Amino acid sequence: MIESRNKTEVTPILLAAILVVAAVIRGIYMIELAPTPFFRQPILDAQYYLNWGTKLAWGGFRVLPGFQGNPLYPYFLAFLIRIVNAGPLLIRIVQHGLGVVTCLLIFRSGRLLFGRWTGILAVLNSDPDNFRAWNNLGMAYKEEKEFNPAEKAFQKALRRNPDYAPSHTNLENLYVQQENMKRP
Q1: What is the pLDDT of residues 141-150, one digit of tens each?
Q2: How many angstroms separate the CA atoms of 20 and 7, rounded?
Q3: Are 52 and 64 in contact, with CB atoms under 8 Å apart?
Q4: Rounded Cα gap, residues 59 and 6, in angstroms
Q5: Integer angstrom CA distances of residue 139 from 59, 92, 112, 153, 159
Q6: Is the pTM value of this prediction over 0.85?
Q7: CATH topology of domain 2-35+87-182
Q8: What is the DSSP string of 72-139?
Q9: Whole-number Å distance between alpha carbons of 177 and 165
């Protein structure tokens, strides 16, 4: 019954799952890319940045004339090439590690800026018959002590799936909590 846990219990599990999935997907991508010619010899943008980073690493740290973009990434590549003596494999590993860290930052900033409401409402916007999302919305309202909207959300969940036990339990707990608050 994950829906009735508080968010401090679920957040580390969710974050760990997101990071593991991100790392696994990137690992699979690397394994599939390794035997292809594109692994050792990048093309297009990757080739341009690698060439620029290599020139910076061995020819001094200066911006090439005529470039229209930000030079931070080529300087980062130059650092890896010159200081760490990185080859294509290490550069790819570092890039994939940065991708996993990006997932972490997106997760944290999304929770910080938009809270759990954003995810729940996005699901309901795309699938208004999602009984689990209605149940989660009820839990969010309940945590905010907004009992009437919580009750309506639990009831909507039960109308969409009358056999969903967590919604029955959460609605019952809501009624008990409301009754306890009325007592002196």
Answers
A1: 898 888 999 9
A2: 19
A3: yes
A4: 55
A5: 59, 42, 19, 9, 16
A6: no
A7: 1.25.40
A8: HHHHHHHHHHHTS---HHHHHHHHHHHHHHHHHHHHHHHHHHHHHHHHHHHHHHH-TT-HHHHHHHHH
A9: 18
